[in-house]
Amino acid sequence: MQPLHIAGKAFQSRLFLGTGKFGSPEEMARAVRASGTELVTVALKRVDRETDTDALLAPLRTASLGLLPNTSGARNAREAVFAAQLAREALETNWVKLEIHPDPKYLLPDALETLKATEALAKLGFVVLPYIHADPVLCKQLESAGTAAVMPLGSPIGSNKGLRTIDFLEIIIEQSRVPVIIDAGIGAPSAAAKAMEIGADAVLVNTAIAVSHDPEAMAQAFAWAVKAGRLAFEARLAAAHDHAQASSPLTSFLKA
Amino acid sequence: MFTDYFNRFSWQDVQADILAKTDADVRRALQKDRCDLEDFKALISPAAAPHLETMARISQARTLKRFGRTIQMYVPLYLSNECQNICTYCAFSLDNQIKRKTLTDAEILQEVQAIKAMGYDHILLVTGEANQTVGVPYLQHAIQLIKPHFAHISLEVQPLDQTDYETLIAEGLHTVLVYQETYHAAQYKRHHPKGKKSNFQYRLETPDRLGKAGIHKIGVGALIGLEDWRTDSFFTALHIHYLEKTYWQTKYSVSFPRLRPIEVDKAGQSQVQEFHSYMSDRELVQLICAYRLLNDTLEISISTREQESFRDNIIKLGITSMSAGSKTNPGGYAVAPESLEQFEVSDERSAGEIASVIRKQGYEPVWKDWDVVYGG
After folding, report:
1. Do A207 and B371 touch (CB under 8 A)?
2. For B306-320, what is each residue's pLDDT tens digit?
3. What is the tally of structural domains in chain A?
4. Chain B closest CA to A35's CA: distance in Å?
5. How far are the Cα atoms of A238, A240, A247, A248, A254 from residue A244, in angstroms, in the given order?
6. ipTM greater than 0.85
7. In chain B, what are the domain boundaries?
8. Chain B residue closest to A86 (CA)?
9. What is the CATH number of the domain that holds A230?
10. CATH domain B2-366 topology
11. pTM reported for the whole predicted model
């Protein structure tokens, strides 16, 4: 399986994990290990910036794991840029998952503010991974703004509804020159596998693992699904057909 | 303003409607992914009582999906018990002959230290309504003092004007709790006969002023014990429904404090005033689950007014935040532990004990879920 490259860093695992919603830091750490992930998101708002012994961060501070702070809570570009700067200091990384959702109910991303913040953060030297709608035009604009990847949603965050935006995701994947990471809504390993089969570079999963009956086993299931989907993509999965292939009845009159 | 919307509804009609809901109405609501306010009426009606277990199962699953296995922790800090209002159910009422106290700067910081030692990062500031002593300048100053120590500051004081809220938000205020107490205008007047608080409409429009001021979160609710809880709950849900549509950038939380015994002074004699319980534990669980079925994202909090065993069992059913180790008197944590409480706390266990109760159920107590970097 080919490794994934983002901003000069190579990832063997194409499964990224969110660290919210777990019943305890220990349960979260077990799921992270079982998933084989090399990149986990951490909400800045959950991090106690005053201590080095934050209960959420402690089990995540291992050599093989990259931390991707997110700006969840930011309602506009100004707050998000400020949050990214504090996160850089607290977590010692210039990577940031940019989340700007002015609507606290469905947590849907604000395209205009996200584009503004991406421009500003890229200029400040951040590796920006923005959470966005499955909007192909916005993806191209983010590329021009210097984004390191794009993270379009599969369905509303936390909804577990799967790839409801698949038609747009396919366009994004076709057009993108930066890695495409499907974020939000992936509720089952089958949806993760599907995302990989259509050519997504990685997926980010949180709710489906954290709130399952056995997060550790579910993390493992997602790991296998992501690998299976990616292998199938690399092996050039045959297209599905809903009709039988006739043996050239329309063109058989042509001489070979 | 909400008043225009509110005035289209009659208390009597709504109450009759709720009582007329049938088993079939409840079953229909239970089968829907998205309930509306008519479904909510069915879910809080007596007809839903036999379906409580089903409601609890759905409520648990939906809460888990949105909030995960977490419970947010907050604690109140009573800054003052001075009050110019008469409220029939409150120990701080103007007509209650008690020793009045307002914390000084040094005392606030002493209390802050005690609260930080309990592990808290989210704090709720509470006062009575006394504009001379604890008006906007006092609150503004208190927030300035407290802000360096907490990630999230909430306020539960008298209703203020929009510009006052804007001032306090600029200082670092994130959340305001303002309960209507009851949505029954005549009963409201009866329970609040004197003081600025007797203005029903001004209070009713407070969340509008907060929304216009751009506050991050608003907490609403009705006191349980003043009027019919079902009808009051419908109007609370209606209020939230209106607010979510109008001020869509604001978060909402709901609470349903059941009235607790208070200590009152009767002609120099201290007496305990009890309240008739208008709502059973079963009914409170029904209400919590009904809110969750109506609204996946609403925050629901349970305070130390409720009893130990009830609080322990409610953790997994739909609530999202809890207070613990609370003192409801100014100076209660460190300065003056013996001063008069606003109401008697039911659950007296410490924050640490509650945290371990939460953990034992496989949930994580969350002490910090906000950052000062995010504005009001």
Report:
1. no
2. 889 999 999 999 999
3. 1
4. 19
5. 14, 11, 9, 12, 21
6. no
7. 2-366
8. B373
9. 3.20.20.70
10. TIM Barrel (3.20.20)
11. 0.87
